[in-house]
Write a structure and sequence with these properties.
Structural class of chain B: mainly alpha
Helix content of chain B: over 70%
Number of domains of chain A: 2
Largest interface: A-B, 35 and 26 residues
Strand content of chain A: 25-35%
CATH class of the largest domain in chain A: Alpha Beta
Number of helices of chain A: 17
Number of strands of chain B: 2
CATH architecture of chain B: Orthogonal Bundle
Shape of chain B: globular
Oligomer: heterodimer
Largest sheet of chain A: 6 strands, mixed
Strand order of the largest sheet of chain B: 1-2
CATH superfamily of the largest domain in chain A: P-loop containing nucleotide triphosphate hydrolases
CATH architecture of the largest domain in chain A: 3-Layer(aba) Sandwich
Strand content of chain B: under 5%
Helix content of chain A: 25-40%
Chain lengths: 493, 321
C-alpha cells in the first residue's frame, strides 16, 4: 500500500486547463523527485496536495484511504507538510514560537513557555540540528530558517513532506546537512516529494523521478535507471507545432552591445550583441537573472560593472530617462505592476514617456498627441471604444498592446521585451509576433526574454541562455534544439 | 479626466451618482441651510462665506496635488500659522516695508517649509504621514517662538487690504482664489507635469520605467502645498488683522476633507480638481451654516469627521466597481 496515490488529477483555472490527468505515487521511506520546466504544472499539483486548490477531476488516496483535501489546515491534519521556496516564518518570533504557532502548549489561559522551549529542544536534538530554540528566526541564516521549517513540518506529524527548491538559497555544506536529515526522515518511514532543477542533487537524493511537461504526465523512473540526458529529453521533448510568423529579414551590423555586465547576487560577466534586423531571444529558468539584467541595462538598477555600446559608441545609462533618450525601450515583465498606470486612460498611458514630443513651451499639444495615439491604436490594432478609456478595463492582450504602443511611438532602435505574450490569448500573441517582425524589418533590434520554449525558438534569430546569472551559451537559429537550451539553462544551477 | 466605459445610450444611475453626487450634495446642503435660516442666502453672507472659504480653498488645492501622488500633508495648518506670523512681523506699520515684502516673506516661508517636507519625504524616504506630522509640530513651535506667543497687531493698510478688501463687490481673496484655481487647472490638465503627478500616484514603478523622476515629482507637490499654505496664511492674517500664533490650527482636516469629498483617492492616481472645489465649498457652507445655526463648534467637528468617513466609504464603493 502506497503512502500517497494521486490519480488522474485534472485542473483548470478560468477555462484554461493546466493539469491533464496527472498520476503520482509516493511510497513511505522514499524520496520521489518531481521534475519539469517552469509552467509544467508542478506547483499547481503540489498546491492541490496541500489543500490550497481543489482538483476538478481525479482522486487522492493517503495510505489507501480516499481523502478530500478541502483546506490547507485539513491537508496539514492529514499529515501533509509543504516547505515552500519562499520561506515565510515570522522573523521577529523565536524558533520555538514559530514551530508551535497556533498550537502553543498552554497552562490555563497562558502560554507555557518553558514547556514550549523544552519540546522544541527535544525536536531539534532528535534531528541532530543545533539551533537555539530561543533565537529569533530572523537572525538565523537562510539554511537554518529552512531547517526550522522542516522541524516544524515534522512536529506536525507530517507523513508526506513536500520540499520545493529546498537548496536554492543554501551552501554546499548545508545541503549535506539537509541530505542527512532527509535520510533520517526516510528511515522514519516518511515520504518526501522533492522539487528541484539541480540535476546532480536529484540523482543523489531521489529514489524515483517523475517528469511533467505542459501539464501532462510524462513518465516515472527509478533514479538509477536513467541519466541527465534522458531526463532533459523528457522534460522538453514536445512537438513544435505552433506557428510562428517569422519572416526573412536582412540582418546587418551590430547595433547594441553589452560588455562585462555584473551585479553581485544577480548576474556575472554578461556579454552579448544584437544586430540590426535581429531578434535575440534570452532563455533560462525563472530566477536566472534575465529580468534583473534588463533592469540594469535600462537604468532601473545600478550594476556593479558593465559597458553599453550603441552603434559602436559607448553610452552611459544611469536612469530610465537616459536609456529612453538613447532610443532604448523596455516592455516590462508585469504590465500591471510596471508597465501601465491602470487608472489612467489608454491615450495618457501611451504618451507618458513621450511628453517631450507632445508638449511645447510647457503645455501639452493635444491635437498632435491625439493624432499619434490614434495612429498607434490603428497600427497595433488595439481594441478600444475610445482612447479615453481607462486602461485597467482592457483585456490582457490589449493592455499588452498599449504597453507596446507606449514604446513604439518613440520609434526606438532597441526594443527589450520581457515575457511579451504572457497571459495573452493566441490571437493577440500572433499579432504581437507579427509586430515584432515588422519592427525589426525596419532595421531595428529586439531583445526578447521568454520562458516559453516554442516561442523563443520560433521567433529568435539567436538565443542566449542564462543560467543562475551566468551565460550558459549562445545558439544560432540552425542550432536551436530544446534539449540544448535546457542543458544550458541548468548548467550553472 | 477619464471617461468610464458605458454602453451606448444607457444611463447608469449608480455611476452618475458616484461621480457627480457631490454636486447634488452641495445643493442639498445649501438648500438645507437656506430653509433653516433665510439670512443664509443673503449676498452679504455669501460673500463673507466665500471670503473665508478662499483660505480653505488654497489649502484644498495644494492638498489635491499631494493626495494625487498618494501622499498626505498634515502640516498645512501649521504652515498657515508660520507663514502668516512671519508675514505679519514684516507687515507691521513700524517696519516701514511695503506690503509686497510681507507677501514675499509669507510665500517664502511656505515654500521653505514645503520644500523641507518634500525633501524628507521624497529623498530621505520618510513616510508622508510621519514627516508632515513632525512638521506640524515644528512649524507651530517656530510660530510661537517668533511671536513670543503674543499677537502681532498694527499691520499696514496695504497688507490689510489683501484679506479684507474688495474690488467692487468681489472680495479680493476670491479673485486670488480664482487665479490660483485657473493656474492649478492648467498645470494639472494641460501640462506634462500634471500627467506625471497622476502617474506617480497611480503607479510609481510604471512612472519610473516611463522615465519620470518620481522623487522630483513627489518633492514638488509638497512645495506647492507649502506655498499655497503660505498664501492662505497671508490672507488669513490679513483678514483677522493681526498675526496670531494659533492661526490655522486644525485647517489640515478641512483641506483633507475637501480633497476626499471631491473624490480624490488617498491612495493616489485618481481624482479631479473640480471635485476639490465642490469639496471646499461644501466645507465652507457647512462651517458657515452651522455657525449661523449656533451649533456648537464641537458638534461641527463631529459632523465634519462623519462627512470625511462617509465620503471615503462612497469613494471606495466607486473604486471597487
Amino acid at each position: 500500500m502506497k503512502l500517497l496515490e494521486m490519480q488522474g488529477i485534472e485542473k483548470s483555472f478560468h477555462s484554461v486547463q493546466v493539469l491533464y490527468g496527472i498520476d503520482f505515487t509516493l511510497a513511505g521511506g522514499k524520496v520521489h523527485a518531481l521534475m519539469g520546466e517552469n509552467g509544467a504544472g508542478k506547483s499547481t499539483l503540489m498546491k492541490i496536495l496541500a489543500g490550497v486548490h481543489r482538483y476538478d477531476k481525479g482522486s487522492i488516496k493517503i495510505e489507501g484511504k480516499e481523502v478530500e483535501l478541502t483546506t490547507p489546515k485539513h491537508a496539514q491534519e492529514m499529515g501533509i507538510a509543504m516547505i515552500h521556496q519562499e520561506l515565510s516564518p515570522i522573523p521577529e518570533m523565536t524558533v520555538a514560537e514559530n514551530i508551535y504557532l497556533g498550537r502553543e502548549p498552554r497552562q490555563g489561559p497562558f502560554v507555557d513557555y518553558r514547556k514550549m522551549y523544552e519540546m522544541t529542544k527535544e525536536l531539534l536534538e532528535g534531528l541532530k540540528v543545533s539551533i537555539n530554540p530561543k533565537e529569533k528566526v530572523g537572525n538565523l541564516k537562510v539554511a537554518d530558517q529552512q531547517l526550522v521549517e522542516i522541524v516544524k513540518a515534522i512536529s506536525l506529524n507530517a507523513r508526506i513532506i513536500v520540499m520545493d527548491e529546498p537548496t536554492s538559497a543554501i551552501t554546499d555544506k548545508e545541503v549535506e546537512q539537509l541530505f542527512l536529515i532527509i535520510k533520517d526522515l526516510k528511515k522514519q518511514g516518511k515520504g518526501i516529494i522533492y522539487i528541484s532543477h539541480k540535476m546532480d542533487e536529484i540523482f543523489r537524493i531521489a529514489d524515483d523521478i517523475t517528469v511533467m511537461r505542459d501539464g501532462h504526465y510524462v513518465n516515472t523512473w527509478n533514479a538509477g535507471d536513467i541519466d541527465n540526458g534522458i531526463l532533459i529529453k523528457n522534460m522538453v521533448g514536445r512537438e513544435l507545432n505552433d506557428y510562428f510568423p517569422k519572416e526573412e529579414v536582412e540582418i546587418k551590423d551590430t547595433l547594441f552591445e553589452i560588455r562585462n555586465f555584473t551585479q553581485e547576487g544577480k548576474f556575472t560577466d554578461i556579454n552579448f550583441q544584437v544586430r540590426e534586423g535581429e531578434i535575440l531571444g534570452i532563455a533560462g529558468l525563472v530566477g536566472a537573472g534575465r529580468t534583473e539584467l534588463m533592469h540594469a541595462i535600462f537604468g532601473l538598477e545600478k550594476p556593479d560593472s558593465g559597458e553599453i555600446y550603441l552603434e559602436g559608441t559607448k553610452i552611459t545609462i544611469h536612469k530610465p530617462q537616459d536609456a529612453i533618450r538613447q532610443g532604448i525601450a523596455y516592455v516590462t515583465e508585469d504590465r500591471k505592476l510596471e508597465g501601465l498606470v491602470l487608472q489612467m486612460s489608454v491615450a495618457h498611458n501611451i504618451t507618458l514617456p513621450s511628453m517631450n514630443t507632445f508638449s511645447s513651451a510647457g503645455f501639452i499639444t493635444s491635437a498632435k498627441e491625439a493624432k499619434s495615439v490614434q495612429k498607434e491604436i490603428q497600427d497595433l490594432r488595439i481594441k478600444v471604444h475610445t482612447p479615453r478609456q481607462q486602461v485597467g478595463k482592457l483585456s490582457g492582450g490589449n493592455q499588452q498592446k498599449v504597453v507596446l504602443a507606449k514604446w513604439m511611438i518613440k520609434r526606438p532602435r532597441v526594443l527589450i521585451l520581457d515575457e511579451p505574450t504572457r497571459g495573452i490569448d493566441v490571437g493577440a500573441k500572433t499579432e504581437i509576433y507579427k509586430l515584432m517582425c515588422e519592427y525589426v524589418a525596419k532595421g531595428n533590434a529586439v531583445i526578447m526574454i521568454s520562458s516559453e520554449m516554442p516561442e523563443v525558438m520560433g521567433m529568435s534569430d539567436r538565443i542566449m541562455v542564462l543560467s543562475n546569472g551566468i551565460m550558459g551559451g549562445v545558439l544560432n537559429r540552425e542550432e536551436f534544439a530544446q534539449e540544448s537550451i535546457m542543458k544550458m539553462a541548468v548548467s550553472h544551477v | 479626466m477619464v471617461k468610464e466605459r458605458k454602453e451606448k445610450g444607457t444611463f447608469n444611475l449608480k455611476l452618475f451618482v458616484a461621480q457627480y453626487g457631490v454636486i447634488i450634495g452641495l445643493f442639498l446642503i445649501f438648500a438645507f441651510f437656506t430653509i433653516m435660516k433665510t439670512k443664509f442666502i443673503s449676498i452679504n453672507n455669501i460673500l463673507n462665506m466665500l471670503r473665508q472659504t478662499s483660505i480653505n480653498g488654497f489649502l484644498a488645492i495644494g492638498m489635491t496635488f499631494v493626495v494625487l501622488t498618494g501622499g498626505i500633508d498634515l502640516s498645512v495648518g501649521s504652515i498657515v500659522g508660520a507663514a502668516g506670523m512671519f508675514a505679519a512681523l514684516v507687515a507691521r506699520e513700524e517696519t516701514g516695508l511695503p506690503w509686497i515684502a510681507a507677501v514675499l516673506v509669507g510665500l517664502g516661508v511656505g515654500l521653505v517649509l514645503g520644500t523641507l517636507n518634500g525633501i524628507i519625504i521624497a529623498y530621505l524616504r520618510v513616510p508622508a504621514f510621519v514627516a508632515t506630522l513632525g512638521m506640524l509640530s515644528i512649524a507651530r513651535g517656530i510660530t510661537f517662538m517668533a511671536s513670543d506667543a503674543k499677537p502681532v497687531p498694527g499691520l499696514s493698510e496695504g497688507f490689510l487690504k489683501i484679506g479684507g478688501g474688495s474690488v467692487g463687490m468681489v472680495p479680493i481673496p476670491i479673485l486670488i482664489l480664482v487665479v490660483v484655481l485657473l493656474i492649478a487647472f492648467v498645470v494639472l490638465y494641460k501640462c506634462p507635469y500634471g500627467r506625471y503627478v497622476f502617474a506617480t500616484g497611480g503607479n510609481a514603478v510604471s512612472a519610473r520605467v516611463s522615465g519620470i523622476n518620481i522623487k522630483r515629482i513627489t518633492c514638488s507637490v509638497y512645495m506647492i502645498s507649502g506655498v499655497l499654505a503660505g498664501l492662505a496664511g497671508i490672507v488669513l492674517t490679513s483678514r483677522v488683522t493681526s498675526g496670531l500664533a494659533q492661526s490655522g490650527d486644525g485647517y489640515e482636516v478641512d483641506a483633507i476633507a475637501a480633497a476626499v469629498i471631491g473624490g480624490n483617492s488617498l491612495s493616489g492616481g485618481r481624482g479631479r480638481l473640480w471635485g476639490t472645489i465642490i469639496g471646499f465649498l461644501i466645507m465652507g457652507v457647512m462651517n458657515n451654516g452651522l455657525d449661523m445655526m449656533a451649533v456648537s463648534s464641537y458638534w461641527q467637528l463631529v459632523i465634519k469627521g462623519l462627512i470625511i468617513i462617509g465620503a471615503v466609504m462612497l469613494d471606495s464603493l466607486n473604486e471597487s466597481k
